[in-house]
Amino acid sequence: MVLYIHYLLKNKQGERGYVPLRVTMVQLDVLEFLRLNKFEKLLYKIKLWFCSIPNAILNFFKKIWAALVRFGLFIANQCVDIGRTFKNGNWAVKLSFLIMGVGNFAYGQILRGSLFLLFEIVFILYMVFVGAHWLSMFDNLGDKSLQTIWVEETDPWGDVTLVEKTIAGDDSFKILLYGLLSILFILAFIYTWRLQIKQCRICMEITASGKKVKSGKDDLKSILDDQFHKTLLALPVTGIALFTVLPIIFMILVGFTNFDAKHDGYSNLFTWVGMENFNEMLNFGDSGMGLAFGEVLAWTLIWAVFATFTNYFLGMFVAIMINKKGIKIKKFWRTVLVLTIAIPQFVSLIYVRHMFDYNGLINNIIVALGGTRFKFWDHTTWARALVIVINIWIGIPYIMLMATGILMNIPQDLYESAKIDGANVWQQYTRITLPYMMFVLGPHLLTSFVGNLNNFNVIYLLSAGNPPKMNSNGSGVVIAGGATVGDTDILITWLFNMALGSETNYKMASVVGVCIFAVVAVLSLIVYNVMPSTRNEEDFR
Amino acid sequence: MEREELNVVENQSATPETEAIVLPPIVEAPIVEPAPKKKHMGLSAKSKLANTFIYIVLVLMTIVWLFPFVCIIIESFRVESTAQVGYLFPKEWGFDNYITLFRDTDFPTWLLNTFVMGLATAVFQTIIVLCMSYTLSRMRFKGRKFLMNFMLILGMFPGFLTMILLYKVLADLGITEERAPIGLVLVYVASSGMGYYISKGFFDTIPTSLDEAARVDGATRFQVFYKVILPLSKPIVIYTVLMAFMAPFGDFVLARFIARAADPGQNVAVGMWSWLEKTMINSHYTLFCTGGVVVAIPVTVLFLCLQKYYVEGVTGGAVKG
To answer: Which B residues 228-257 touch A at CB under 8 Å?
Structure first.
């Protein structure tokens, strides 16, 4: 039977994607492995998986180190190259070290030359008139806050009155933002400067070998041909740089300041505090950040595991049920399920949440059946269970749709050859259908696990993190990072309350954000490294 | 469940040649009825039992799935109370809520805002996503792997944190509060390049031999994109448009943060959200349900009509093989 998987994977994924049996080659050879019974096989696989974790982590750090070394070498190489270019270059190349574009002009590339020159002029003007101002205050993020003073003022009738006036001071927020922008601009300038020096050198070499350099016309033509990828990427990448990368760098920097409700940046400036917030994060005392983070993280992981796997398996079973031969009106069943995807979640989830209210519909049904009212959202276990169950309601249809597509796509010859070899139905199912679905839906399992770690909508719209966690002595609710910590709070909802709740504790939110990033990154790295490589993008080529 | 699974399997291979498993590739018809369906004469008693069992499960599921939606619709016809009441069926039925909704509230503005935002997002986001995914899928250039890994890592940062900065910047540009829809579209579209995965998966499955043939015939890369690949990409274009159009209908976090309390700049989600605050909920609960129905109907109809493309979109990359 293993042969079928073998056949299947080999056929579908080519040699490189052929993995699930890889584990058998590590310690047991295939024959030894086959001799194990099912349970032992499973155990063996799990054991191997865990054994490979330390290696994966080690590899990860090795990779980081290697990347750092490579980066250092790269910079060194660049410097050496720049020096060599200056030494060997002619007057045009040497002059273009100072005035960008001169080299291009000298070799007849008017278009490129003028663009370089324009960039340099803009850069210098910006730096002199704008950048310098912000950069000079970047080291302490401003020193004059908003001031209220009383001024004697003479009105038209000659009476002198005292008038309250506010004088705007510095704005730490803007200083941080524009200082960061200026720094990025400087980096961009250095990159461009390096680029044009390289181009000059290449032009020089080309001319020396007697060929012609590219003209402006060639450049324009290549925009839609050789360099078409740059044309296509220009807009999306700019958008991502400005609206994702820049804000993320900014928010990481906020983690090193004391930016919160008390230090709002204009009436009370904020400034750099070094690692203080990160130290606070490591406070594992009662209602300290570290402890709260640990507790929320634990529930986040439990939630993500349950949410992912319940949806995954139930969704597959529903798909199998609906696709079973002999079941009529398949389209109807699917459409019914798909409604939860189509209807906006803030409508459906909020309504469901109110159904489970103290005086909601469900409680009234319970009362009608002779029970007593129950506060679902006030009991930790109930709230947690409900969130997971309702998530099934929302999540199954996605998997069902995908699994349906896959079920229809399993090559029929697999079943036929299995039947010829005498495989019974159950074997066909466990050896062909399941592995195939697992295999194709595997990548989705990973992404949906990561997605569930940050599944804001379901938690926030349903329980909103309630019920609040109690102190260890039961005297009150746990408040960490300026936000109450709830029993169903996952990291992302807690972070949301921290940053955008009443306290607007940006600094700790930023630290927690970095921690969330670390958690997600480490988990995905482990998963991607340990799990069999999923999909090879070159497969279809 | 286990018994269930067993039965399903047995049935599946009882007559595999008539089974639904092999069908035209998913591109053409993702959800279709099993193609050549012969009448199976000898369905065993066991199999019949299994089918009955499945029907019971499916009917139960249908009830669970539809119950909240039916409730919302029924609530919207309640006349005697605007608050949350403990019983389902209204004592008095009527269209009062719908009339109030369109006459006395800002709901029409919100709906219009959302609709316009949906259209604008759909157009621009589709362009951006297509550019991104096409490039990453079909072209090999220096820095491609780096770009993809970089975006993967970027996606792991919690996006909420960036909202604070985005709000300040948009406020400086003057596109928040009343003019929030413009700012929101800008934010949605600008970062949409990160969501290239699914359509890249689609482009990956179009054979490169097509490109090569066109290149041999002297087409530039732009012509390959515009004249060869794009006409083949109808499913993924529709999928992207559909997703982009639906996004503003469900967004309440970013939209609330950018629009603040300015009613004219809100989308439906934010506006209706404000009805659920403690002071408002008793006078607006049924209105919330009514609004929910009004929002859900067009979105649902659109989704159900284009469901086929949705399935192709999500499974496209994964299933082709």
So the answer is: 246, 249-250, 252-253, 257
State whether residue A321 sits within 8 Å of chain B by CB.
yes
Give dist(CA A438, CA A313) in Å, integer: 10
B27 touching chain A per CB within 8 A? no
Among A274, A295, A326, residue at a domain's last position: A274
Range of the domain at A429: 280-530
Q: Which of B130, B142, B101 is nearest to B272 (CA)?
A: B101
Domain B105-319 matching CATH 1.10.1530.10: the answer reads: no
Tens digit of each residue's pLDDT (9 = 90 or more) over B29-65: 445 445 454 444 445 677 788 888 888 988 998 998 8
Q: Tell me how far apart the alpha carbons of residues B317 and A390 are, in angstroms, rounded to a whole number.
A: 29
- Quick one: which of B321, B22, B28, B29 has its CA closest to B201? B321
Q: Of A423, A405, A406, A426, whose CA–CA distance to A414 is shortest?
A: A423
DSSP B109-155: HHHHHHHHHHHHHHHHHHHHHHHHHHHHHH---TTHHHHHHHHHHHT
Instruction: Provide DSSP, A85-96.
Output: HHHH--HHHHHH
Interchain pair B250, A409: CB under 8 A: no
Contact call for B30 and A410, based on CB within 8 A: no
Interface test with B, best of A244, A337, A349, A356 (most B CBs within 10 A): A244
Q: Give the chain B residue whose CA is nearest to the CA of A493.
A: B160
Q: Which of A175, A226, A232, A506 to mutate to test the interface with B (most CBs of B within 10 A)?
A: A232
**Contact (CB<8Å) A425/B165:** no
- Residue A255, chain B, CB below 8 Å: the answer is no
A510 touches B at CB < 8 Å: yes
User: What are the per-10-residue average pLDDT scores of chain A (541 residues)?
Assistant: 42 42 51 77 77 78 91 93 86 84 84 90 92 85 78 78 79 87 92 89 85 80 81 88 90 87 80 84 74 86 90 85 79 84 85 84 84 82 88 88 78 81 78 76 76 85 80 71 80 85 82 87 70 48 44
**Residue B62 to residue A333, Cβ atoms within 8 A:** yes
Identify the residue with better confidence: B194 or A14: B194
Output the six-digit token pair for B190.
């600008």
Residue B24 has pLDDT above 50, yes or no: no
Residue B205 at interface with chain A, using a CB cutoff of 8 Å: yes
| One domain, residues A334 and A457 | yes
Residue A400 lies inside a defined structural domain of this protein: yes
CATH number at residue A317: 1.10.3720.10
CA dihedral A288, A294, A296, A299 (to 10 degrees): -150
Cβ pair B161:A242 closer than 8 A: no
Instruction: Indicate whether A79 belongs to any domain.
Output: no
B window 300-319, beta carbon within 8 A of A: 300, 303-304, 307, 310-312, 314-315, 317-319
> Per-domain residue ranges for chain B?
2-76, 105-319
Number of other residues whose CB lies within 10 A of the CB of residue B147? 18
Average pLDDT of chain B, as a whole number: 79
**Which residues of B are less than 8 Å from A426 in CB distance?**
6, 9-10
Helix (H, G, I), strand (E, B) or coil at A523: helix
Same domain, yes or no: A254 and A358: no
Decide if A331 touches B, using CB distance below 8 A: yes
Q: What is the DSSP track for B12-61?
A: HHHSGGG-TTS-S-TTT-SS---SS-PPPS---HHHHHHHHHHHHHHHHH
Q: Is A300 in the same domain as A206?
A: no
Residues of B in contact with A337 (CB under 8 A): 61, 65
Which among A322, A407, A537 has the least Cβ separation from residue B21? A407
Enter the ipTM: 0.78
- Residue A519 counted as domain residue: yes
Q: Which of A139-153, B127-141, B167-181, B183-197 has the lowest mean pLDDT?
A: A139-153
Q: Give chain A's domain count.
A: 3
